[in-house]
Design brief:
With 261 residues, the chain is mainly alpha-helical. 80% of the residues lie in helices and 0% in strands.
């Protein structure tokens, strides 16, 4: 079976990444559609392409890895977006701030992320403020709430993934514990049986051997061969019991490697 070239976390979240691409594509088209082919057009086009490259690099990296580098890339995305939002006549480029907010749950705790989104909104307000406070406030407030929504959505998804991973780890620990408890109960049962063999049958066979040894010296000569045979049989049984008990006790030794496996 051939191994896929696409990492598992990308194949699993393909719809999320596709929606991010479509959002970037639509915003880029709306922002560039009305521009002439001049320096401004190529400047903005380069900005959009650079933003998407940085965005793709961050979301394509495995969760929990290269956090410091990803923070730098997110900062660069914000710088690029700030330059693109300035002079945006259609007021659509700020939608890409939602894509930035969706990257924050993987690298920042909730409080720091919300503070960062709030700071981004302040900068956004400064950029779009044209003298009409209420108009600029509501424009920024819409995108602020969208950023919070995007951040919360990804945070919930990551939280569910972490909870699932923790549940899998707990189940593995429970299975391992149950396996060890089962082995322990079996060993305890064998140990109990070995003690019973040693304490009950072993002692009785020892007493029987001693009684036969005494009787052999008190019976007539004609019965001594029979008693000798019985004495040898009792000693043989006692030796067998001791051998079995020894083997069962040797099995009780704790095998660390086996239990770890």
């Amino acid at each position: 079976m051939s191994k896929s070239l696409i990492p598992e976390h990308l194949r699993k979240d393909w719809l999320l990444h596709l929606s991010g691409f479509v959002t970037w594509l639509v915003v880029s088209f709306l922002a560039l559609n009305s521009l002439d082919f001049n320096v401004t057009f190529f400047f903005k086009a380069s900005g959009f392409i650079g933003f998407y490259i940085l965005f793709t690099w961050v979301v394509s990296s495995k969760k929990g890895t290269n956090t410091s580098r990803n923070k730098v890339f997110v900062a660069l995305q914000l710088i690029v977006l700030s330059s693109l939002i300035y002079g945006d006549r259609h007021n659509v480029i700020a939608i890409l701030l939602v894509l930035v907010a969706s990257q924050l749950p993987a690298m920042l705790p909730r409080k720091k992320a919300i503070l960062l989104i709030f700071a981004i909104s302040i900068v956004h307000f400064i950029i779009v403020f044209d003298g009409e406070f209420i108009n600029a406030l509501f424009r920024v407030l819409i995108f602020f709430t969208l950023q919070i929504f995007g951040f919360s959505t990804i945070e919930i998804m990551l939280r569910e993934e972490r909870a699932k991973d923790e549940l899998v780890a707990i189940n593995q620990e429970l299975l391992a514990t149950r396996f060890m408890l089962k082995n322990s109960s079996q060993k305890q049962e064998r140990l109990r049986i070995s003690r019973d063999l040693h304490d009950v049958i072993g002692h009785q066979l020892t007493a029987l051997s001693l009684n036969l040894e005494v009787a052999k010296h008190k019976v007539p000569e004609e019965f001594k061969p029979l008693l000798q045979d019985n004495l040898q049989l009792a000693k043989s049984l006692l030796a067998d019991v001791r051998h079995v008990v020894k083997e069962m006790r040797d099995e009780e030794q704790f095998d660390l490697a086996t239990n770890l496996n």
